[in-house]
Specification:
Elements (H helix, E strand, L loop, with lengths): L27 H14 L4 E6 L5 E3 L2 E2 L6 H7 L7 E10 L5 E8 L4 H7 L4 H9 L4 E3 L3 H8 L5 E4 L6 H9 L4 H10 L4 E3 L2 H9 L4 H24 L6 H14 L4 E2 L4 E4 L20 E5 L2 E3 L2 E2 L3 E5 L6 H19 L9 H16 L9 H4 L26 E4 L2 E4 L12 E4 L2 E6 L2 E4 L8 H18 L1
């Protein structure tokens, strides 16, 4: 039996180590539907070429943990490096007389390599596992492009991995230097549009029920992690212990990745927006700002909670928290169908500005930016900062609402406010009936937070 023939005999759930082919995966019909949408929106005589994320060397012979390109995954369900997708608006004639509009290129099966790094789909496996119309060895991509590009007027691609010419030379044609030269020299007039990601953003911004199911799972795992940490963390814990507890819960619940490096800032570090060092030892009196989200089967959660490590808000922490919470409430309410994308931001800015003025932390409303220096919302999905058009909100959009106030030591205000950094972040689904908070299972109000903080301390006390 040739190696190629083995693929259909390999159970799908052993094919790829990240679990994207398990029973909870997006069905192949989902990806087929996405390809059809993209093909519909492409111009005549155009071809789209997308690539899997290349493997990247970390050092010596170790690669960074692999993660697929979200656009490529969205269209294929394929998690393998060394893969490419070609979509042709006009269709590509095959040797057997058939015409296809989609061709997936994957690495060939290779028993020697698979002994080290696990099964590959191979073209046969790609057909049976991913239900694409046609699948080929990645080695045949240069020939295919050489054949179809002379009759192509527009080439869509994603500029992630380099400029157009570099892309054609370095990625499109992989290592085949002869073929690189052919494309470089022979198709100088081909219009190359770098708008593929934009075309997809229209679709990616509106989540289907299949996507929402996975997003709810990623978010519920993240809520569980936040709740455990709020219950368990004590003064004297290192920031990385908070991270470790959260990541343990992510992994035990089947999340393959964190959606982004966990941000666990205590005391002075709570005022650093994307603090990822996580090495400080916490102290009683510290305020903790923790922004931690799981990625489950490709889909990200993005949740932030802030709380006092010793279980009791100081008067200053309480006042800042109340403003951020009111800003978030106001922002969430603004997430309605038809509202401008930035409506939540403007609503949050108003509450924070008024609150900072009232506390005497600022005296001029324009100065709110000193303490709230980021946007309030981004789309969420396959990427944590997901693709989308940032136009009026539509049902199916999922966006974060994450206002914050950050007051580093040395700020021009009473020092009693220093070293408080507070962000509250939830993941909001826009529906025809108003906003739905998908991450509401972690406490947001001070009363709910205090309940969780005090319950756990009570239990600990009882156990002793
Ligand atoms: N949680 C990371 C961010 O939203 O930027
Ligand atoms: Mn966020």
């Amino acid at each position: 039996m040739r190696a190629q023939d083995l693929a259909s005999e390999v159970p799908h759930d052993t094919l790829i180590k990240y679990g994207v082919y398990d029973g909870d995966r997006l069905p192949p019909s989902f990806h087929a539907g996405r390809r059809a949408l993209l093909l519909d929106s492409m111009a005549s005589h155009s071809v789209a070429v997308l690539f899997a994320t290349p493997e990247k060397t970390r050092s010596n012979d170790i690669t960074y943990e692999y993660h697929q390109d979200p656009d490529f995954y969205y269209l294929t369900g394929c998690w393998e490096p060394g893969s490419a997708l070609v979509l042709s608006k006009d269709g590509i004639a095959l040797a057997n007389g058939q015409t296809v509009h989609e061709m997936l290129f994957v690495r060939d099966r290779n028993p020697a390599a698979e002994t080290w790094t696990g099964y590959r789909l191979g073209p046969q496996g790609a057909l049976s596992a991913l239900h694409v119309a046609s699948a080929y060895s990645i080695d045949s991509l240069p020939d295919l492009l050489t054949r179809i590009l002379p009759n192509t007027q527009i080439l869509y691609y994603n500029p992630h991995y380099g400029k157009p010419r570099e892309l054609i030379r370095d990625t499109l044609l992989l290592s085949d230097t002869e073929a690189r030269a052919i494309v470089h020299n022979n198709f100088p007039n081909l219009s190359i549009l770098t708008t593929l990601h934009q075309l997809l953003a229209r679709f990616r911004a509106v989540k289907t029920p299949e996507e929402l199911r996975l997003m709810r799972k990623a978010i519920s795992i993240s809520n569980e992690a936040h709740n455990a940490v709020i219950r368990d963390a004590r003064p004297g814990w290192y920031e990385y212990q908070i991270q470790a507890e959260a990541e343990d819960i992510f992994t035990k619940n089947g999340a393959e990745y964190t959606a982004y490096p966990c941000i666990v800032g205590s005391g002075p570090n709570s005022t650093i927006l994307h603090y990822e060092t996580n090495r400080r030892k916490t102290e009683s009196g510290d305020f903790i700002e923790m922004d931690m989200g799981a990625e489950y089967h490709g889909y990200s959660a993005d949740v932030t909670r802030s709380f006092p490590i010793n279980g009791t808000f100081t008067p200053e922490q309480r006042k800042i928290y109340e403003i951020v919470l009111a800003a978030q409430d106001s922002g969430i309410k603004a997430c309605v169908t038809g509202a401008p994308f930035r409506a939540a931001h403007f609503a949050a800015v108003k509450v924070i500005t008024d609150g900072l003025l009232k506390l005497g932390i600022i005296y001029d409303s324009a100065d709110y930016r000193r303490y709230f220096m980021h946007g309030t919302s981004h789309y969420l999905g396959l990427d944590v900062h997901d693709a989308g058009l940032y136009g009026p909100l539509e049902p199916g959009n999922v966006l974060t609402v994450e206002p914050g106030i950050y007051i580093p030591a040395g700020s021009p205000c009473d020092p009693k406010w220093w070293n408080i950094g507070c962000r509250i972040e939830d993941d909001i689904l826009v529906t025809a009936h108003g906003p739905e908070n998908l991450s509401s299972n972690s406490p947001r109000t001070i009363a709910a937070l205090e309940r969780l903080l005090s319950e756990s301390r009570l239990q600990l006390h009882t156990k002793k």
